[in-house]
Write a structure and sequence with these properties.
Helix content: over 70%
Shape: elongated
Order of helices and strands: HHH
Number of strands: 0
Number of helices: 3
Strand content: under 5%
Oligomer: single chain
Largest sheet: none
Distance between the termini: 100 Å
Low-confidence stretches: 1-9
């Protein structure tokens, strides 16, 4: 059966929309790819820098540049391994992307929360000790 005029017009409109979307998609990619790279790599590099400066303050590692660089290299390597694993998993299971991200966030929270809790307790204890020392000095 012959197509109606409206369906031909709709088909032409769809072709135009697809071509326009592809053009806008490529243009948008030139903006989004560098932006996403900055958003991903900036925290990644800051984490490495923060760890390096924290390790450098350790009394046992003062002046031990090789030990500090080894620890940083291990951290960077583990990050690279997990980035590669993430690429493999997301390629094989593209529909479960958000589930995978949720699992990674949950595992990270399980590992980080006890450390943060311990650090918070130590900070509170040191603040209490410092305020008690100040009260003794002022008395």
């Amino acid at each position: 059966p012959p197509r109606s005029t409206q369906s031909r017009s709709s088909a032409a409109s769809d072709v135009y929309k697809r071509q326009n979307a592809e053009y806008m998609g490529i243009s948008l990619l030139y903006f989004l790819v560098p932006l996403s790279g900055m958003m991903v790599n900036t925290p990644y590099n800051q984490i490495g820098s923060a760890i390096a400066s924290d390790i450098a303050k350790n009394k046992d590692l003062v002046g031990e540049a090789q030990a500090i660089s080894t620890v940083i290299a291990i951290i960077q390597g583990v990050g690279g391994i997990f980035a590669a694993a993430y690429q493999q998993v997301s390629a094989r299971f593209p529909n479960q992307f958000f589930l995978f991200i949720s699992i990674l966030i949950s595992v990270a929270a399980i590992l980080v929360i006890p450390l943060a809790w311990r650090d918070l307790k130590e900070r509170i204890t040191s603040l209490k000790r410092k305020s008690q020392e100040e009260e003794i000095e002022n008395a």
